[in-house]
Amino acid sequence: MTASVLLEPGANESTARGMDDEAESRTLMSIPSFKKFHFIWVEQEDALLLELKKALEEHRDEQECAKLVKKCYDHYTEAAHAKVRAAHEDASYIATGAWKTPFEAGMMWMGGWRPTTAIVLVFSLIGLQIENELQRLLEGINVSSMAALSAKQLAKLNALQQHTSTEEDEISNRLAVLQMLVADQQMTRATTADPPSSDCFNMAEIREAIEPKLAGLRDLFVEAETLRLRTLQELFDVLSPIQAAQYAVAALEMAKAIHKLGAEFRNAHSGDVNARTSDNPGLNIWDIACQGDVEKLQEAFNLGLNLSETDYDGRTPLHLAAGRGHLDCVALLVEKGAEVNVKDNDGVSPLIDALKGGHDQAAQFLLNNGATPEMKDAGSELCKAAANKDMEFVERLVKAGVDPNEADYSQRTPLHIVAADGTAKDVEFLVQEGADVLVKDRHGYTPLDEARENDNEATLKVLEAEVARRQHELEADDNNSDDNSSSSPLDDVQDMDLQFLEGDHEDHMLK
Questions:
Q1: Per the UniProt entry, what are the Gene Ontology biological process annotations, in alphabetical order (predicted)?
Q2: What is the pTM of this model?
Q3: Which entry of 53, 113, 205, 306 is 20 to 30 Å from 241 by CA?
Q4: Do 204 and 63 fall into the same domain?
Q5: Which of 228-232, 311-315, 329-333 has the lowest mean pLDDT?
């Protein structure tokens, strides 16, 4: 998706209308759909980061770097349009970044990063890279990093920062006015009961009063999102392709670090409300399970604490014990009735936590006690692990029962990923476990196409042999089907019986 709605700087109102109109022309996105989209989008972003880092490490040429930067920009544009579509359902959810960790949301401005933050990052990189490249610069050696920005580029960056800051301030001022209007006469009339009573609110009247404010919030958010896109576009126009690729890597890694920090802050408070009791203010069943203290866990059970209580993220003590590989605690929790297939807020079960942590004994114990390898977006998890070269995790998931043909958002399977950038051994494992070599992604590419596209000779040989074998099997099946086509009239009766049974089975399933 390209940023076709972006116009010249200064035309932010018409640009915002264009972006909003484009969102209106599509199916509007519900908040649950947006959350699912964002989960998959982040995984694709991780894959893009790996591509960028690999290109810079291998000193790819400017043309290839330009393609990757364009790919990153288009990827970000896709998220921007998704947010605009979701804002039509709940502008407050999107504008406040409610899908982020509290720390991330606290650092956001109108549903995303401040556009001027992007420019500050460039200047920060310039300072750091000048320190790293100083000796080479003094020796007159040409460098392709931010340290080599020309006077013309610096002048353009300064101008970009000035007009971006002005537009930011304008949106912020209009937001302040909108926030004050929450206490206007219409809203006050709707919320003031006569006689005063907290139980006499007319919610229909309150909704009518707040609707114009929500519409105004959505419009401001769209303008802010448009400004972010335009700033990023102008920034990439100033930088060379290699500099832009370096910038994209720094921006993506910073976003990942802030998210991780936000998760740590959030996790530090998880369980406090539910786990500590008045009888035992220091007893926290999540801490105990995480530390693997089976004696304290038994003590908590004896005191009547609920060992299946969930924390802030929907995790139970079994999640934490399994994720750390504390087999004794896992066994005690299961013995005391902990649900083995319970899922946290991200759809992750204790079994998946054990597999992620590489704790085979804990995973096998859970499997022996009824755990199933069901997981949210299994295809995305498999593909992400394959892209990160974590084939051990892929093997654990597949051997535990996850279908190797599960696909991600782009209908790519782990075999597509491995074919492009993996080893012959990885391909052989997936094929042996039932991976389909003829499967196509949403662009029509098979794993064999990926191997050829990426000149991966190791996987290419294995896949060519396996595709030939698979096609031979299909041809043999077709021939057998043709041979059996002239059969007795009784076959028609058998077919009717089979259809009846299938229909009966479908009716039973529906019931």
A1: DNA-templated transcription
A2: 0.55
A3: 113
A4: yes
A5: 311-315
